[in-house]
Amino acid sequence: MRVLVVNAGSSSLKLRLLDATDGVAAHADVDPWDGADERPIAEFAARAGRVDALGHRIVHGGAEFTGPVRIDAGVRHRIAALTDLAPLHQPRALAAVDAAGAALPGTTAVACFDTAFHAALPDAATTYAIPADWRRRWGLRRYGFHGLSHAYACRRAAELVRAAPEDLRVVSCHLGAGASLAAVRGGRPMDTTMGFTPLEGLVMATRSGTVDPGLVLWLVERAGLPAGVVSAALERDSGLAGLSGRPGGDLRAIRAAARDGDPDARLAIAVYTHRLRQQIAGMCAAMGGMDVLVFTGGVGEHDARLRRQAVDGLGFLGVEVDPDRNRAARGDTEVGAAGAPVRAAVVTAREDVEIARQTRSVLSGR
Fold first, then answer.
1. CA 228 from centre of chain
2. According to the model, what pLDDT value does residue 88 have?
3. What is the C-alpha to C-alpha distance for residues 83 and 61, in angstroms, rounded to an integer?
């Protein structure tokens, strides 16, 4: 089955046609993409060849969608109803659903949700300590995100260390412009760092990560900032961008500035790595230890120095990277020191493979 994977992000579009062995038969990246232009999908479909099914990445499935599902008018409507929970992502994903449906009429489409992997989290990990009436009335809980990436990374890491996923405790670090961790024991999620929205957790490129809710209330009630201004700043002007003063929060540029002695850039890296180490340790606590630490995502895959900095403060957990293996890491590989109790690995992010796998499972009835 050849699956066209449609991955619409908050500002970009990735198209991957995977053959039966998950080889990439055709691909295209459109950046920026705002969802209004259907031509990239139509043009790709016209030249890609046979497409047997469509697999769409949908960021938020809410409490309803806990696994992949065929897309029909009712499902599309229910996905649209969740837009308030992911206002940057949901409309673009639905625009991609519509564009792909128009380009490939009659082709079965499956929605694969970033939140679904975390649907099995224990109640202790999903429940906010807020009034029960609020939780019931508005479905307020921790959902978690990057589930497609975490699911693939954990399964691939198990292959690298030649162990069954059921026998492992894995901390998966998806580090890109958005970033989150997942604690996975025996193939089942135990905790994650993102929450009701993708703002919670780690410091990210432009997102703040966790801040004191009292600080947000103070900005609105005492400093007089409109809620919309605060929301936009926490999403787009915070994180590494806010710490360093560099729009976009590109870690490579911030590292270069830090080498030149910029104090804000140095602080940005220090805060980023402090929060990363702190929350990796928290993931370990959620499942009673760790057997494998895996890095994925653009930063996790390509920034050897960050991996070393993160692990340098975690020796008490039994993890250590080998300097040479870490510097030379390309593609899927182990980077841990020989004899270390905890294995460490780098895995190329392949949400497309996970989406294709889930799409085939729905269409085959498995």
1. 24
2. 80
3. 10
Q: How far apart are CA 53 and CA 199, in angstroms?
A: 32
- Pairing relation of β-strands 69-70 and 3-8? unpaired
Question: How far apart, in Å, are the Cα atoms of 226 and each of 87, 213, 218, 223?
Answer: 18, 15, 11, 9
pLDDT confidence of 366, banded at 50, 70, 90?
A: low
Nearest CA to 79 out of 53, 102, 97, 54 is that of 97
Question: Once rounded to an integer, what is the mean pLDDT over residues 94-112?
Answer: 97
To the query of whether residue 114 is one of the catalytic residues in this protein, the response is: yes
Q: Which residues contact 129 (CB under 8 A, 6 or more apart)?
A: none
| pTM score, whole prediction | 0.95
**How far is residue 330's CA from residue 303's CA, in Å, rounded to a whole number?**
11
Token couple for 64: 């309803």
Q: What is the pLDDT of residues 172-230, one digit of tens each?
A: 999 999 999 999 999 999 999 999 999 999 999 999 999 999 999 999 999 999 999 99
CA proximity to 33, closest of 84, 96, 85:
96
- Closest by CA to 6, choosing from 33, 32, 41, is 41
Distance CA 8, CA 157 (A): 26
| Catalytic hit among 37, 84, 114, 133 | 114
